[in-house]
Every structure is written in structure tokens, then in C-alpha cells.
Protein 1
Amino acid sequence: MSDVPDLAAVKAYLLDLQDRICAELSAEDGRETFRTDEWTRDPSDPKGMGGGGRTRILAEGAVFEKAGVAFSHVTGTKLPPSATAHRPELAGRPWVAMGVSLVIHPRNPRVPTSHANVRFFSTTDATPTSATPSSPTTGHSSLGLGHSGAAAAPVWWFGGGFDLTPYYGYEADCAHWHRTAYDALAPFGPGYYPRFKTWCDDYFFLKHRNEPRGVGGLFFDDFAELGFSRSFELLRAVGDAYLPAYRPIVARRKTEPTTETERDWQLYRRGRYVEFNLVWDRGTLFGLQSGGRTESILMSLPPLVRWDYARTPAPGSEEARLDTDFLRPRDWLTAR
Amino acid sequence: MSDVPDLAAVKAYLLDLQDRICAELSAEDGRETFRTDEWTRDPSDPKGMGGGGRTRILAEGAVFEKAGVAFSHVTGTKLPPSATAHRPELAGRPWVAMGVSLVIHPRNPRVPTSHANVRFFSTTDATPTSATPSSPTTGHSSLGLGHSGAAAAPVWWFGGGFDLTPYYGYEADCAHWHRTAYDALAPFGPGYYPRFKTWCDDYFFLKHRNEPRGVGGLFFDDFAELGFSRSFELLRAVGDAYLPAYRPIVARRKTEPTTETERDWQLYRRGRYVEFNLVWDRGTLFGLQSGGRTESILMSLPPLVRWDYARTPAPGSEEARLDTDFLRPRDWLTAR
């Protein structure tokens, strides 16, 4: 039996994952729910991009100050060279990308910000069977992928992960987050967690600050090594692990007492999130520079942020401990 | 008489300009003054960069929520290729850069944000006469520039300009701003204002929003066409015009009554400033990616910022008028 990419199955999983995440986060918030913004690309787009997405935003909740959970399914007739620096032979091919991406900014400074992403990308030599992309939320891709293994010769991969950005560090939360990540990947072999954990530490790093964005988690890209079915299982294992990794931390910290000083620190630290996403994040930069949908890309930015010149927390303070004890690549599985 | 670059004169001008700007803005604020942060580069810097700077910040003033006015004088032993994309033959040469750069974020949403920059850059074939860079605030460059026209063969240029970013538009303010710019350049010939005005409109543009950053002003770079003495005069004309361009606008608007709604709009619009500086501004990106001093580079970021998903002002509102009537390339000299 051939193991060709099944785009419809990937899409169905992603839409269901978005539904589940939004439902659980709404329940955890208890006051606000997500509003849905469906969008489609102009079919006359000069860059030949089609498709669309379903962006969901919860704003000004009791627990979540801003939560964005976006599904998108975008197609193109010609892959730009900048998107395939590591595989120049793919430039110019038709392509399809779909994924769920989310960033959650809680109100209480003692609840960490979290980010997750699961995505699928495929190119093919096949000529599109139709010039009209399918609806972003229903139906199958029009690119003819997955119909025939022999003719299409698709080059495809998965990518994704999740990472945590605390403002006040709790060893127990970091340990739970990483333990959940570890458990999700354990059925696929012992090497995946350490490999994706290190990849995450390397990726979410602010070189201009010499500082990690947070306490990490998982990151992987260009992943096809297990064949389609098993690689897709791994993607689902990661996507499905996000809620059990994050929700207990939110539930445990959302009622912690907090102060104006802590709020101020949270707003200041959120500046680092902005700096990473706008200066270093390849997905954000590629999206903004290639004509992606700005509002969906920048839904990741925090609702309220401050910058102060040369701010340094008092030595030994809980704020200073964030840097000394948490924003370091650490083995969180053995933390307690 | 030869017309070789006089670095000591440029430096003296820049330090004095910083002094004058800080003194006048402090006076306009009436409550807070600038604190000075002198810094020097580690002489053992692996990238061979030396020098330092004098960063001045006024925070939480009555009129200015955050004002940063920075002088820097930085040297390097080898110009990176990325800094000389348009002049590859200069890569690898020793270089010196000095300038004053400022960004002023007022508190009242009816006072516009302003940015100004004047800078000098030079490379030379000459070997540095000393491995120890001079103090950032006193003394002469150690690179031997300006001592001899024949031996050093320096390649040098000036750059700079100023631009205005209102949150609520006033035709009269924009007209005054551009009239002052026009008058400053008029003695050098009629072509400079239109050329640098258009350059400014082109440079301060957010492609991902299809939106200018503000109402523009002047921008120029790579400027040596009048010879050193006259080009330096032009630089001084621009630097000296900043205060007469900006201070009357601040004086006129700082006591305007304002509302929480207007404050919220200001914080939201400040997000565009962050997006421009971190995504598109070449100076910021080059600085952050090449190991520049992060705190001095990012002093331009606003003190408090908000992002909202897909926010659109009510049609016909003063907020909507900012986009329709002001964030457009316009001939401001004839506005009233």
C-alpha cells in the first residue's frame, strides 16, 4: 500500500484541532469566546497565491488578554526561491501549505504565554487540475496531490512544535510542559524529544539580546523521515499534546495574586516577544515580505507592550531569577 | 585648498547638536531632563569594532513619555560585505561611523512622534594609526582620516533627515514641518527638497501594510556630491532645522485636551512604528544583526504600545482621516 500524502486528512485534523483548542481555551477563560474571521485570497492575486484561512481571536477575556488560533490553507502556482533556500530544485513549482498556529497572551503575569504550530507543506510537479482554489474550510485541495503517488512525485514535509514563555518562572510548570512534550514523542523513539527540544532552544533565541525567548519545548521542520502516515501521526501527537501541556498551567496560575509591579514586568518582557517575532522569526518575516495576510500573521503580537531603556531587575529578585534560572537551555525533565 | 574630510569637525558638530536638542526638549518638557549613558565597545570585540557613544534618555516627562537622543562614534577594522551591498569594493576596509539619532514619543496623542538622524560614514585604505579607539566624546578618531588627503583616499558620505509621525493629523503642522525642511535646503539649490522628500516617502513605508509611517520629511544617504565642506554644510542645515521644525508643533499641541479613546488610538498606532523599525528599517536591522548596542538601537521603540486584531476606525472619524488624508504622499508645501 502506497503512503502518499492525504491532504484531506491533514486538513480535517487541523480544522478539528483548531476547534478543540478554541473550545478548551474558551472554557478555561470562562467569560469570552473566540470570534471567527474567515478570509480568502483574491484569486487574481498577481503572485498566483490562492486559498484562505479561518482566524479565531479571543480578546479581553477574564484569563486571556489576547488569544489567536489561526488555521490557514494557502496555495501557490510558483514557489518563490526564498522559500526553498535549502532545496533550490523546488523553486517554481506549485505548492500548498496548511497549518494551525496559535499564540496565547494571558492577563495574569504568572501565567506564561504559549505558542504552538503544526503545519504541512507540499510541492508537486503536477499541473494544477483547476485554477480555482478550494474553500479554506471545506473540500479538498485542487492541486491533485494525494491522488496518485507515481504521477505527482510530491515533495512534502511536516513542521511544528510548541514553546512556553513565562514572565515569572515556576520549575514545576516547566517540568510539566516538557514532560508532556516528552511523553507525546516517546512512542516514536527516544531520539525525538531531545532532538526537537534542542532545535526549539536554538530557534527561539534572540541573538541581539543573547537570550532565549522562553523555556522552550519542541520545534521541528522539514520532517518526512517516517513516511507520510507515521510522520502525520507524529504531527498529531504534537498537536494533541498542546492542550494537556498548557491548560493545567493556566488553571493552576490564573488565580495567583499579582501586583502592578508584576504587570509592568510582564508588559516589558512582552517586548522581547515582539522583538523575536519581528526581527528573527522566519515564518513571520517571510509572510510579511511575501504578501501574506498581515492581520493573521501579526495576531501573535501581544495586546499591550512596553519598552524601557536599559531596564535591569534588582539582583536576586524574582524578575532577575527569570533570566538566571529559566532563560537558559536546561534539562527540564529532571527539574522539580 | 584640499577638501578632505574633517572628522573632528563632524564630531564636534554632532556632540553640540545633541547638547542643543536635549537642552531645548528638556525646556519644552518642563519637568524631566535627559540622563546620560556613556558606553564604550569592548576593545577585544571579536568583530574588531571599537568606539562608543553617549546615549541620552528622557523618560516619563510631562510632555515627552520617552525621548532618546543618541550620539555614537563607532569604528571597525573590516567593513562587512552586508554593509556595502552597493559598493562591494569597500568590503574589508577599516571604517568609521558617527551620528546623532533621535526618536521622540510625546505623551499627548495630538503631539506627533518625530525622528531625526544625521550621520557620517567613511572608509579608508589607510592602516589605523592606533589599535585603541578614542573616547566616544572627546578627541579625534584614531583612523588617521582627515590628516592627509593623498595617502588615505577615504571613501565617505553623509546621510540623514527627519520625519514626522502624527496620530491625529493637522495640515498646519505638516505644512510647517515641510516648509522648515524646504527652507533648510533651499540655499543648496531647488532640487534637494523634492528629491529628499520623495526619498523619505519611499523609505518610511510599511510594505506589509501598504502604508507610509507618517507624513515624511527628508531622507538622504550616500551623499558626497558637493565635496566635503559643502556636503557637511548641508548636513548641518538639516540637523539644525530639526528643532525649529518640531518644537513649535510640540508647543502648540502639548496642551490640547485629549481623551482615553485618543490615548488608545495613539498606543495602537505606535505599533506601526515598532513594525517599521523592526521589520523594515535597514539601520535597525543591520545594527541588531551585526552586534550593535541593542539598548541604544532600540531606544527608538515607544514606551507603551498596543496591538489589536483587524482594528479599523469608524469611517469619517478623525482616526480614519489620518489614513485617508495624511498617510499619503502629499505636497505639504501647499497645504494649509
Protein 2
Amino acid sequence: MSDQPLVIFTPSGKRGRVAPGTTVLAAARQLGVDLDSVCGGRGICSKCQVTPSFGEFSKHGVTVREDALSDWNKVEQRYDDKRGLTKGRRLGCQACIQGDVVLDVPPESQVHRQVIRKSADTRPMVMDPATRLYFVEVEEPDMHEPSGDFERLTRALKDQWPDQDFAGLTAAPTLLAKLQDVLRKGKWQITVAVYADHTGAAPLVLDVWPGLHEAGLYGLAIDLGSTTIAAHLTDLDTGEVKAASGLMNPQIRFGEDLMSRVSYVMMNPGGEVELTRAVRDALADLAKALSEEAGIDPQLIVESVIVCNPVMHHLLLGIDPTELGQAPFALALSEALSLPASDLDLTTINPRARTYILPCIAGHVGADAAAVSLATAPELSDELMLVIDVGTNAEILLGDKRRVLACSSPTGPAFEGAQISSGQRAAPGAIERVEIDPTTKTPRFRVIGVDLWSDEDGFDAAVAKTGVTGICGSGIIEAVAEMRTAGILDGSGLIGSADQTGTDRCQPEGRTHAYLIHDGSADGGPKITVTQGDIRAIQLAKSALYAGARLLMDERGADRVDRIVLAGAFGAHISPKHAMVLGMIPDAPLDHVSSAGNAAGTGARMALCSITARKQVEEGVTRITKVETAIAPKFQEHFVNANAIPHKTDAFPDLLKIVDLPDVNFNAGSADRTARRRRR
Amino acid sequence: MSDQPLVIFTPSGKRGRVAPGTTVLAAARQLGVDLDSVCGGRGICSKCQVTPSFGEFSKHGVTVREDALSDWNKVEQRYDDKRGLTKGRRLGCQACIQGDVVLDVPPESQVHRQVIRKSADTRPMVMDPATRLYFVEVEEPDMHEPSGDFERLTRALKDQWPDQDFAGLTAAPTLLAKLQDVLRKGKWQITVAVYADHTGAAPLVLDVWPGLHEAGLYGLAIDLGSTTIAAHLTDLDTGEVKAASGLMNPQIRFGEDLMSRVSYVMMNPGGEVELTRAVRDALADLAKALSEEAGIDPQLIVESVIVCNPVMHHLLLGIDPTELGQAPFALALSEALSLPASDLDLTTINPRARTYILPCIAGHVGADAAAVSLATAPELSDELMLVIDVGTNAEILLGDKRRVLACSSPTGPAFEGAQISSGQRAAPGAIERVEIDPTTKTPRFRVIGVDLWSDEDGFDAAVAKTGVTGICGSGIIEAVAEMRTAGILDGSGLIGSADQTGTDRCQPEGRTHAYLIHDGSADGGPKITVTQGDIRAIQLAKSALYAGARLLMDERGADRVDRIVLAGAFGAHISPKHAMVLGMIPDAPLDHVSSAGNAAGTGARMALCSITARKQVEEGVTRITKVETAIAPKFQEHFVNANAIPHKTDAFPDLLKIVDLPDVNFNAGSADRTARRRRR
């Protein structure tokens, strides 16, 4: 037996012998165990806490005696008095190993801790941020050794953090101006935030604080959509979201959808300057609002990560997006970009903060799709996985370990409640769930903000506050699908008359019919109906979505997919069954359809918290095969064929196991010429 | 004998065999011959011109036949028609090697050409700029290969310039916004300016132009002095100075000398912001003025290099200089700095331009001294060399191949004509040369702008335009030295009375005397005298200078130096003999004293034109031993001892060979108590 004590770390299982008297922190470093420390072992940051176990461990073949670690010391006592140390814990930098010992590293003591995520359909998220804190003691200046403060800081980092690579460390003039004062205020002990990303660029000192900085570091994960801009203020140590907020993309005043914004620039050369200004101002405002909401000093926000579609990507960067509006849809830049946040006028956070923009996949498949692929990881899947991020443009990924394909499909805003007669954004008062009794043809529904169905006791009282104001995206999808299963709508998408359907809720409206979901007019509220026009808008949107997915399946030579993941703020609320009745997504066993929530936003947060994730997405996108819907003849064919609801029931055998689709045809004579024209 | 033709390049002498049909440019690349090309061998830039020689070359052992190169081709003819090709020259990218050949590469076809410099006392200057132009043909975008414009540009650079390292190439958003348009305007042929310095940082695309860019690239070499800011607009291809200009440092309104500016900041905390703003604005103005003067598009100015003393260095960077005003004189940053020019608000040049600031040597020995050492290269000298950059602060270097020492000495502004009763800056009308007849004690002089001496025929007419307005730095030095050799001044620095000196030009002034150089009062001009106060000011300045040099000699254990180089805008005009009579510089044979002109400015230009020079200065400063005058007791001792003129004649044996110093002592009784007090 060796004289050197055996140390076993859990949960990693790493073990080895160390010299007696070695601190736990030093032992962890020797054995390659992930044990955090900001203060570098000075007993002030408490990041290196461990829990020793005592007694006999037959599993490990060791007996741990009570004196396996050195006695509780003054530093630990002082820390416990001042801040409290969880019972049983020791400070790894203070406790010395005297005998065989088993030491547990709690999750919060790990640098690269895994973050527990709500959704199972996403890649695990491990903390590995570009910006990290280092506590150092800097040599005081000496007339006989006339180095600069910054050079002495660099030396201190290299000496006191030998495991890190600080080669070429640099800093902006504003940091140099600040460093001088902070060093003296901190009596030559300071905490340094160093940004070192995955690009191989020289590390940067982003900020410095006197003494031990304990207020943390934060980052913004920004999902820059055509319609809304959402951001999550995230703790760069824990990955925790401290505040989330969103605002309308102010570019909407230049055009509701992307192509109208591109047109604006085409018609107004140089107009991209206004669009760029608008979106940059919005980002700066959002960052300010989030730091206020979370009560966090905006100076502590040192990073941001942005995901967006290619047009927003170009407009954010100040690049004319016209090329993206015409073949060959050439991007000005496709690779990821790491730059000072100030280059994007994001000046409401730390002035030296950095921004990372995810790579674009192609002219129509942007950094948002790249973020979805990062979050959902189709390239790691054994099964053939279809990921659909539903929005004004749907980003579609299809693939598995062998190969991943991607395309974008112009669904338009119908799924978001726009272009729908009673449509509205998802907000309290909006109908989000609909069921129609196939016998009585009577609907019942739920509205956002109320837990009861409309036919349950107490609903009227519960809804009184907001009223029933309209129908949102998921609501219209359910309404149309339920109308189809209840026989109110035929396979071509035509609403039957009261006679044909046997319900007075089908009322003539012009030369077509509309189905009444809710009549609030007695109380001064709106009459909420689904009109023939609404059906047509949904048919166009779902045809585009389906055609995109189908095009990728063709490319892959697949008839079916094993798993479907719906993503996007809206995608997360779609009922898979209703989406399939609509023919919006390919057929699949219902339990193989799931939601990944706002996967683009999740991908942004992953890239914010981990440079490994940045490498993964950059490598990942180079392996994605891009399919251009705009030039694929098959896309048009699939689009036209997908008009019916569902377009071909024999393509949906799984669906037919759960719903019985009535064989109705309301196209009696001249009822709807438009429908026939469309179908051709 | 090989089948492959032998190619000999002159003047490098590089030789080797190449496959028949190889172009001269390709052969040069194979053999490592420095042959320039911007267009990459497309016959449009004409940078690769060579002159073939025909006939027998016994020296090289080859006979060059008339058909050693392929025939003059269409590309060459077109180039000759359009722009004219010097007779005998061929385009290296067009002429193919068919037989043994001797090819001369003219200087202008070399990338790393040596720049001929006026002064011999400086390091040779080789063109090796950080920013270079590359002509490339970029692939057009293709829907099936959806890479971005920037990625295709990067690929083109890597493919078409395989000898260059473009790994990690990056660009600012403003460049990406511009690239898109330039690529299309240039029909996918563009010229790219890539900045790649010596730091190992990723190369940067600074700018792009459609087609072949022929208007060149420029840089600013800036000598940022306490009193004046001088800049040279320099061609980054040839090293040629296109325009030079200077302006007063606007910080003067906060204090004439550096310490009074430091005091301003001490008294007005945060006051450095105003000082920083003032100097940055001045730099931006100066850049604008220079580009206008040279008629050069400011967008073509892509680099700047700045040299300055530590206080200006900190104030330029926005760093509080207070620490430099008190022991231990700690610099915030000592190493060289490479940063975007926009970080210094230098926004009147290319928006993506870079700035390089030379390293500081110590808290009192700045980037200006580093630039002087770069230009004069004492570390390469076999002889012990003393380099003195005379200014408000004198930077002094002493050394040879073995070791270099440096210090800074606070001479004050007397040498620049300030604090002198009739003093003025060097400008037309200022007396710059003085001689005094030792018998008659009558002076004669020359003024700036007039070639005649004051006692020559035609002087009065020639000087009528400006008049005689005052006396500049070099004039006052000569006047004082001549007064000493003519017996008007004694060794202690006392001006004799008319009785003592035998000339009426010595007139009482208060309790002391003044010597009249020129009386212009009859024509309404000034009376130019040298007063006792002037002598005292010069004595203080020269004592400081001498004490600094002497301190370094002590450190080095040297009694004498082999060579003295006077540098600085003013230093270049000092007469070595007079400086020695004054005891301003140590004794040395007169022909061993020379001028290096504005060596700091030269060093700035060298660093601007060459990344090798940047490496040299960065490595060089780490090997310089800094000597702090402020804390050296010997400095005070030397200073006090150096008060006399010259302080100890036995220390100046070389001087005594050329001048005969009269042994006079005017200190009769109470004549000058001040002088005695000072000497103690």
C-alpha cells in the first residue's frame, strides 16, 4: 500500500493518490476533477465546496477515517460565520487530505455544471461560458521594474491561474483607464472578467472589480424575430434566467413581413439604415428594460447572443437585404460572428460586452434555424426526426445521425392569428382550445388565462375580466380541425350550409358560409366565427408548411418520419392531433409528436452559456444540406397537393386510428368557385 | 545538364531550376525571391516587372539566349499600350521561362524594398506593412452552395494567395455591408486590403474596392509631443511621405508642460476626460488636414502609428495620468497597443483603420524614446552610443550591442526658446546661428529663412520681409557658448560688465548684465539680448540634460562615449561644438557627434511601414535597462556639478582641442548672489 492517501471524487468517480497535506482543490486539479474556484484558493469565494463522506465504502474499497481531512480551520470558520456553510461541507481550498477520502462535488461547485432543462427534446446544456471571473493578487508597481499595471495583471493571471491560456491577453482603452483605479481601490486584489471564446482570438479583459466580485455576470440570449424580439437575461454562472421580456420588432412600420421590408429597401435605396437603426435601438431598449426588471446592474451584462432569420441578420448588421429577396438568395455573411456589442450599438450594457451571432445555414435558412438545430440536435438522433419551427417563416429540419436537411417555408402570418377574421395574438381572452361535438355540432372552448372550458360552471364569471376577445393561432388550428372532424368542413376546405351540416351555427356570409364559435354580442363583445376566408388562409399556410416538410422527406427518400418536434413560441402550443387532422404535419403516432418550446431561444441561451455549444452549432451547420424551396419544382407540386384537409387521408393512417374523418362534400354547384380554382 | 532551365535572380542571387514554361512570377515564388504582385499574376497590376539580361554571364556560368523567355504577349502589349512599360522590362506573370536566364528584380518590384533614408545614423527601413492589397476573383453565389459573400471572399484569398496566412480572417459589420455591393460592382473581381500584424491576432479585412485598386494605401506616423503634434502621411507601398504637418497640442491650455497637465487632473478629478477629448480632436483634425493637403481620399488612410511620452500616452488613451506624477511612476500599460483607430475617435480616416502605439519603456521614458531607439538602433552598435532626444523632456539612451540604458531628464522648455527673454520658436525671423568675435566681442548671426550672415552684404534687404524677431533654441545655445568662448561669460555663468568684458554690448540690467545681440529698435523692431536670467535658464536645462547622460554613463561604468547622436526636431539643429562648450553633452571628438533628425518621428514611420520594426521595438524595449532620474541621488549631484559652463574643463579634453576657453571670473563681490545661491 502506498503512503499517499487515495482520493475519490464523486459523482465523476475520478480517483488517484496525492501527497499528504494536499488541499482538496489542488487534488481536484491534479486529478482533472471539475471543481470551481474564482478566488484561486484563498478561501473567500466558497465556490470549491465539497462534502466528505466518512466510514467504510466497500464499493470504492476504502475506509474513510474521521481525520481523513485536516481540521476545520479559521478561514472556514470565518466564512461560516459571515455567510454560513451548509453542514457537512468543507472549503476545498482549505481542507487538506490526510488519509483516504471520498469527496462529493455538489453541482454548484462544478464549473461545467449541467443545467436542468424543462423540455426533454433538447440537447443537454452544460455551463461553459466564454466569460469567466478570476480573482488575482497583482504585484504593486515598483520603480525599479517599470512594467505597466496591465502587464502586471497579465502576469498575475498567468501565474495564479496556470491552467488557463491567457496568451495575447488584451483590453480596450476604456478598461485600461478603469484598471488603474480598481487595482488601487482593491489594494491590488481584484476580480477580472476575461472573455475567451472558441475562435482562437486573443482573450480580452472585459471588466475588473476591486476585491472579490460576487454580483455575478450576465448575458442576453436574444431571439430576434420578424414580428417580436424576445430576450432572456441569463446568469452566466448558473444558466438561470433572471428575467425574460419581449417587444414588437419596430421594423414592422416598414413592412409586416420580411419581404415587404426587403421591398422597402429596394424602393428606398439606403433605407436599410433606418431599418438597422430601428432594430438596434429596440435591442438596446430591451436590454435596458431587462436589467431594470431583474434589478441587475447593466454593467454586469457582458455578453449577448443573437439568433434571427437571414433578413433580420442582415438588417441588424447594416447590410442591404435586397440580395436575399431574389435568386440566388446570396448571404453577405453566413458564418458565425463574434464582435463587440458596441458594433451593434448595444450600448445599454457593459461598454466592452461581446456579441455572438449564430451562423446562417442559407439565404432562407438563418441563424434561428441554426439555433433550433443546436437545441434539438437532430444530428444526434437515431430516429429520423422532423423539427418544425412554426412562425411567419417555418424553419424545417429533417434528419438523423446520418444526415440533416433544412429548408424554410413561407407560411405567412395566419398561424399567428393574423389574416384571420377573428384572429388575435396569444393573449388573455383569446380562444386557444376548441372542441366541437360531432353530433350536436356545438363548440366548447378555452381562453387564455382561464382554466375552465366554456361549458363548465363558473366560466362566465372567470372570463368576465377579459371577455372572449378573439382566437389565437393554436385556437384557429383546433377550430378548423374540429370543424373537419365534426363534418362542418369538407375535405376541400369548404364550410357547409346550415342545411348541409345540420347546425344553425353555419351562417351564410356573402357567397360562402361562416361557423359561429362564440357570440358575445349580447354583452357588447365580438361574434367569433370561422369564415371561409379564414379556412383558405389556414389552408395556404399549412400547405406551405407541409410542402416544405415533404420536400425534405423526398430529398431524404423517406415516406414517414419517426419523430416530429414542434418548436417556436407558437409551435409549442399546437395540439399534434389537430395539426395532423389539418394535414399541417406528416402523419406520425401521436406520442411521437412533441414540443421543444421556443427552441430558437433555447439555442441562443445554449450558445450564450457555452462555447462548446458555439462550436457544435458552427460545425453542425456545415453538415446540414440546405434545400431551397423557392426553386424546387416539387415544392409547388406538394403545395398544391396539400390544399385539402388533410390532403390525402391514405397518407395519414395513424391519424385514422384516432379520428374518424367524415366523408362530406359541400361543393354543390356554384358554391365555391374559388376553391376549385385554387385546387387546380 | 538538366533539362530544366536555370533561373538566376539579381540582386538577391537566388537561383534554381524550374520546369520549362514556368512564369517568372511562379519561379520567383518557388525560389523564395521577393517579387511583388497585387493582382496575383493576372497581368493587370504590373507590380511583378523584371528586367531579363541576355548574353554570356561568366560570373554566373550561363549563356542567356534571346529566346530564354517566351515572346512578348498580348497582355504585356495591352499593358504597354495603356500605361507604358519601361523598355527592357517584362511582366513576371506573363513571361515564361524557356531557357537559362538572368532576371533583375528592380527595387520597385520588391515587396520588402528598402527605403533610402536621408540620415545615416538610423536603422535601415524595409517596407513590410501590416496592411497589404490583394486582388482576387471571388466565386459568384450559387443557390446550391449557399455560402456567404464573405466566406467566398475568404476562400478566394486562401486559394489565390496560398503563401499568405488568412486563417481566422474577419471583418467589421461596416465592411460586410460594403462588401456585398463592391463584389457586384467589381463583377466579382475586387481588391482587398487585409491587415495582419505581428501580434498573431486574426487578420482583418479593412476595405475592399471593385476591380484593381490603384490609388494605394496610406498611413499616418504621428509624433504626439507635449507641445506640438506632428504627423507624416506616408504611402504604405513605397514608404514615401506624401504630406507632413503639425499643430500645437491643444492641451497647452490645461498647462504648458506635462506636470502642470497632471496637476490639472489632480486638482480637477475626471479632468483627464477634457484633456483626452482635446488631443483626440486634434489628431482627427490633423489627419483631415493632411489628407486634404496631399489630395488623398481619407478612406485610403488605413493605419496610424503614434509615439508619445507616457503622460501623453495615458491622456490619449483616456487614462488618468496622476500616477505618472508621483513615485513609483506606475504606467497603466507599458506594452505596445494595437487597436481600432476609432477607439481613439480618429474618425476622419478609414472607419476600420487600425492604430499602433509603441510600447513605453518606463513611467518617465515613453513610446517616443522607444521610437528613438527603433530609429537609431543603439543595441546594434559596436561603439558605445549616446542618443539624446532633446525636448521639454530629454530622452536619453546609452548603449551598444552589450546593453542599452535609458532615462528621461526634465530639461524644461528653455531649449525650445521658451523662458528666454527674447526666445521664440524656430520660425522665419528667429536667430538660429550666432558667432562672437573674441577680440571685438561683436556678434554676427543668421536668421531662419535667410542664407546670409548679418554682417554680409544684402542681409538687411534679405531680412526685411520678416525682420529679426527673436532667438530660437539653437540660437540661444550658440549665443551662450559663443559668449563663453569670447570671454563675455565666466565659467560660473555670470555675464561680465562692460568694464570687465571690454564691450558696451554688456549693459546693466537690474543687478546683473545683459549682452546685446541685435538692436532693431531704430526700425521699430525688438532689442535682442541675452540676459543673466536667460543664462540661468539654459544652465538649468543643460545641467539636467548632462546629468541624465552622466547618470547612464555611471550605470554603465563609462567615462566617455564613442558616439553621440542628437535627435529631436530641435536636436537636429544644435551645433555639436556649441553644445559641448555649454557642457550640454559629454565630450567627444566633433566628428563623432551627429544628428538623427526627428528620430521619434522616424521611428513612428518605421513602425508604420513595417511589422518587423514593430517586433524589433517591442523586443528592444524589454532589453533596455531603465534608470529613474527622480530617485537617483547621483542625478542631483551631477545636476549641481554640471551648472558651470562647461562644468569641468578637464572633463572636455576634446573640446579644448578646438576652443580656447578664457579663464575669466566676473563674480566680484555682490554682483550675483543668486548665482552663488544656485551653485550651492
